[in-house]
Amino acid sequence: MNVRQSTLSRRLRDMEHRVGAQLFERTNGGTRPTVAGRGFLASARHILAETDAALRKVQTRSRGENGQLVIGIYASLSTGNMFSTLLDHHRAYPEVEVRTVDGGHDALLCGLTNNTIDIAIMTSSCYGWDDRVLPLWNERVIAALHLRHPLANMETIRWHDLAGEPLLVTKNGPGPELERLLNARLGNCGPQRLLYHESGLDRLLSLVAVNYGVLLMLEGATGLRYDNVTFREVQDGDGPTRLDFAAYWRQSNDNPTLAPFLALLQQRYPDLSSARRPD
């Protein structure tokens, strides 16, 4: 203990005086705790253990190794890059509680501004954001079809193949963006049969399963499997139609769990390893 025996004995006597009880029995054979001393030592050990645990928790939290991270999710994460990113993050930081929030561009940007969301993963066609942005991956546009639909016999389909088809359109997530894309590709084909819903992908895929219509979605949702439903890539003239994704967050966000998550994103996409402001 690097303390002289006389100094230690004096400190023990002072402690006994302060607590008003004899904590140690002193004999020629040595010093041992009394009944009161054993109870006191047990309490002291408990306090020291809790103090050590609290210090370790503060230290790990400051490194982003525990705590809570709130992620705004724009599209399905049943498979693909978002699913893999969350899987890798959980393996590296199992003590971090990840909470997801669904929503469209406006709702998720509002959450970032109000500090209810730490980071949002959305398509990069997001305007009105003047803080931090990290370009990420892209996802193909996919058409979900009933197995008996004539288009299901084609390996891939083109936008003009969808003209006149009953198209299920969700008002949530990427639905409005897919609708704009559809109107841009089929603008010369006249009005389209758009069936609007405020349901999630699971219910819309159930409608596809009973041949109620064709659903446009992103490939991250193809991990959802339904009987009688198949998926086909939607192509432009030069290949698959893709939507780019990016991460959005506030530079002033001081949540320690955010930095490791950003570092993981940058590690997974080294060619896009520096956050930047949009021009």
Summarize the structure in words.
It is a single chain. Strands 3, 4, 5, 6, 7, 8, 9, 10, 11, 12 and 13 form an eleven-stranded mixed sheet that branches. This protein has a two-stranded antiparallel sheet with strand order 1-2. 34% of the residues lie in helices and 28% in strands. It has three domains: 5-62, no CATH class; 67-137 and 243-272, Periplasmic binding protein-like II (D-Maltodextrin-Binding Protein, domain 2, 3-Layer(aba) Sandwich); 140-242, Periplasmic binding protein-like II (D-Maltodextrin-Binding Protein, domain 2, 3-Layer(aba) Sandwich), CATH 3.40.190. The chain starts with a helix and ends in an 11-residue tail after the last helix. With 279 residues, the protein is of the alpha/beta class. The longest helix is centred in the first third of the chain and has 28 residues, at 35-62. Strand 11 (229-236) and strand 12 (239-240) form a beta hairpin.
Helices and strands, with pairings:
Elements: H1 5-19, E1 24-27, E2 30-33, H2 35-62, E3 67-73, H3 81-92, E4 96-102, H4 105-113, E5 119-123, E6 132-146, E7 156-158, E8 166-170, H5 175-185, E9 193-197, H6 201-209, E10 214-218, E11 229-236, E12 239-240, E13 242-249, H7 258-268
Parallel strand pairs: 3-4, 3-5, 7-11, 8-9, 8-10
Antiparallel strand pairs: 1-2, 5-13, 6-10, 6-11, 6-13, 11-12
